[in-house]
Amino acid sequence: MNVNSKSSRVSLTLNVNGVIRECHVASTTTLLELLRGEFGLTGAKRGCDDGNCGACTVLLDGKAVKCCIMLAPQARDRHVMTIEGLGTPERLHPLQQAFVDYFAAQCGYCTPSMILTAKALLDEQPDAQEEDIRHALHGTICRCTGYVKIVQAIEAARDAMA
Amino acid sequence: MISSSPLAMAAFEYLEPTSTDECIEMLTHYGPAASLLAGGTDLIVKLQHRALRPRVVVNMGRLSDLRYLEQNDDGSVAIGALTPLCDIERTNCLANGLDAIRQGATEVSCVQIRNTGTIGGNSCNASPSADTVPPLIAVGAEARLLGPKGERRVPLERFFRGPGKTMLEPGELLHGFHVPPPPHGTSSAYIKYAIRGPFDLAIVGIAARVTLDAERRIAAADIVMGAVGPTPIRAQKAEQLLVGETANEKVIGEAAALAASESSPISDQRATAEYRRRMVEVSTRAALRAAIWGSRKPSVTATIVRNSSPPSALLPR
Amino acid sequence: MTANPAKLSVVGTNVPRVDSVDKVLGRTKYVADLQLEFAELLHAAILRSPHAHARIVALDTSRAERLPGVRAVVTGKDCPQHLAMITQRILAHDEVIWAGEGVAVVVADTPEIAADAIELIDVQYEELPSVLDAEAAALEKPPSVVDRNLGRHPGLAPFTPQAPNVTGSYQLHNGNLEQGFAEADVIVENRFSTGRFSHSQLEPAACIARYEPGGNLTVWTNGQGVHIIKGMLSELFALPGSKIQVITPYQGGSFGNRIRFYHLEALAALLALRTKATVAVTYSRREMYLGSPGGLPVITRIRTGVKRDGTVVAQELDILVDNGASYACLQDGRAAGSGAICVYRQPNISMVTRGVNTNAPWAGAYRGLGSPQVTWAMESQMDILAERLGMSAVDIRLKNILSKGEQNAYGETIESIGAARCVEAVAEAIKIATPSVQEPGPWRRGKGLAVGGKQNTPRGRSEGMVLVHDDGSVEVRFGSDEVGMGAETIMAQIAAEEFGISVKDVRVVRGDSAMTPYDTYSASSFTTYNTGNAIRLACHDAIKAIKRAGAPLLQSSEDDLEVANGRVEIRGVPGSGLRIAELFKPFSPFQDERVAELRKGTPIIGRSVFAPRPAVAWDKKTGRTPRMWNWYQYNACGVEVAVNVETGQIKVVKAAMAADMGFPIHPKLCEGQLEGGLAMAIGTSVLEEFLYRDGVMINPSFADYRIPTVGEAPTRSNVTTLFTPDPLPDGPWGAKGIAEGAVLAVGAAIGNAVYNATGARMYDLPLSAERVLAALTAHAKAVAS
Predict the structure, then answer these.
(1) Domain total of chain C
(2) Is the domain A9-85 a CATH 3.10.20.30 member?
């Protein structure tokens, strides 16, 4: 049996936004709770009860995942990118800049998840068309914008990054 | 402690085996008090709602030997239980007669879920509306089960006992699926019908596999229906109707109507039983058409669902 | 207050939102994100009724109280008795009246312990008959009485309800209805209904309340209206307002859910007062459906008489609005009814509206306040009439839409109405006269349009505060909300325009009862109008003070001065003036207080109060008044849909939205409202409804309450937004509001398009696939026979 047996806590090391982090948390801790509670990275949000809304989306080894329905140790030794790892006020990532320029954020609650989902898409498909963008965003809900300016912003970022 | 919701899991011990043997030891030791964690997309939700209260959660994440997706020389395919659905979505190993499996994986929810959820988890969670299950059954997949007494194989068709219930004995885990090579001239499709497309759980899910002989008669047909019974249901009468017939709209329509009568749906928050039965007919027609002629979805713009790459060019028109 | 738009430099332009950068960086803190800032924080969990109606026979919390880590368990008897503006109990007392009503609350050291403790509460219910059908509930002998004390609540004026569940009623009578029907060439009568919807904004309700014994109660909440919440808490807990501070950080959407949702804060405050600690109450998504306000189902019976030329000559309406389960609710359906009055000329009309309680989760303010639901009925009826007359959908509407200067049926003189141009704009955009191109397969296409109007409630005072700092920078302070619509940006724009500076030089401070002046909440689309006018006036006040300080220094009279670009100058004499910063004398610790001079460290403060002209009470017999509401926003929607005749699914393939918002202060933000409203209304018209079994909602989740994903919205090039504004005389630069207009006409446009595509007329929203398929099947049978 491994070191964590018979214990209701779990230790793990993971890379968060380029920084190696160690933590020791209750076994019931989700990856979302780890990021928000342990590391203070509150950009990922909780919006629903069952992994549907996508507001918790982060990138795990570059792929979009819903971290509210993952246990923290599922990220053991892996690389997590949250919105805090993307861009700075002085230098926004092109996606962030596009969301500003195209007014794609209204209440802003889904904005980090939309940007990260789009980043994963464009990293894999730099030439993604609207159909691909809609496919990628299918699991990330927005109630404010009707998605129009979000798609416009992602297309603009795609063109800027080309 | 920062909390964004009053939903809070009941305490459990967490275990992380580093080998399949170690995992089986743990499962044997803890029995029904243990839950297996694969991708977690179903399990974590149940834990948060306290629908499940295992004493122990066993994380399979390090069992890399359960993650494989290989086509063998004889055309059979081995799919490891921990293969994420996104890998199934993108593979070249599942074409033509096995394409329904790939199509089923594509229909699961959204990108994020497919990046995390596993094909084994989809079966072991045993939701009647699981999207990869009807296709796996339709192509005759076997479940490879590994336990303290060694390995056994069960036709996937017999793996499910009811919603959330499988044939897994205490101490057993699902190693993966053995998918036999499809006969020559076989093509397959999976049609998921849901209001918001992949995002929703299926209202009905129909897998169809059809083998055409040299004269374009239907030599064999498999129709497996999901979400319309406590476990997937094979539409046997519909299948029998098709065998020996020349593929045409009329016979497809008759088979679809028969399949609807063989379904056993309930009314729930997603749909009424009556509507499900009607959609079985609509979707079975669509699945058979797709399997035989390759057109998979009625076309309309503004739809989120993408047509996967067209099935076999093997089937003569 | 209108000005020549050609002379505007900031207002009317698309400045970057003041909150965008933080939002895209993920730095914006919502209430749940603030939890980290508290060293010690307790967490609450709520036990909710599983029954739609039941007596609480026994409630034993002792086992829960004994669990280590539990700080308190609170039930109805621990809650203040009087209602203080809350039309709910904080927790049920001896009876639960909807499935989801709170019965007990646990406060504990961790969310896990709170959840564990909930399971240790022993409660026994005796189930009672319940009623979810509004028409059954409205009977004189209903299956269930929801609020036993209706009409007799202490602190509220007593009244005798029409029926045990009817909470209020309103009647409007104009002209001669009988005569009107006698003159009509065609008479059509129908019943329309809408289901129960939910706002489903992404950020769940959350509140943190901290109580320091002998000291202050501080509340951070995503509820709306810091001053209103503070006033409510002061009343409820008999705490002086001076000891209460309410702060609303950025809110993750609302659409009305967070308005008057007082028992979120009341509960958190109660728990904080009880434990003398800091307590977080955070709702799950399920609780948002079961325990927060939802939308208003409305049943409209409408009988219309028209002449052959399309003139509406008689209109009879019976409107029943379903409050859900409420205590001390006074809903009379009047707001919903306004949707039937504000668009068309109706010389002979009788409208009766009623509110009724049922045992469903209670209805609060929802985008449109009932107008969209009534518009569904009115605009479906208009298309039915048009077809009977052989007229186009556009012509029958243009024939009857009111003009500026006319009176509507209330007796109000119309000051601003862009409805007709809205109709023309969408008709052109979707080319409604050109039939859809059909493609082979089960999808049938069709086009439809509709128009609607939404009142603005003339209530509420907004106070504005504008600070001019000694560096010349401007700070705007206001007390209403930023739920995502961009209110902070609008106020910054207004100040930038008034001072002749860039938005970048304006700071916004909002939503803190200790810092920001009185305002209500952001509701009824009135923030731009109410708060915007107040901010504008406060800017004028500050500018006057600048001129007063500058006049002696520039040896000029105040009237000859103007303020722009951070300077005060003599008009017409460029370079003549001073930088505003130069008006402030250097800082000195030994300042002579009696001399009224500007000193560094003390800003100029401009203040204002704005309140709309009040409503005028309506005549008790006719229901008429020259001022029932304030202004109306208008919106038309045109769509092309594809209907799958095998499944009943509807896809909106193309949409055009045209808005009369008076004046677009920020055009892109206006577009955003229209695009967002379109998607939201597609949801509530086609996809979303509360489903029940035995009075219990069976789909309280994003899995099964189907809000639109991107796939349910048209592709972006198929959404067109159009502005056809008609300036409002007392709006800032003519501006009204836009946010609710955006959902008014979508449902009816879709319904009309479905009819044009398939020949099946729908009467009940949502147009779920099952309902549409049933209608198609019935239609096919009718055609065959």
Answers:
(1) 3
(2) yes
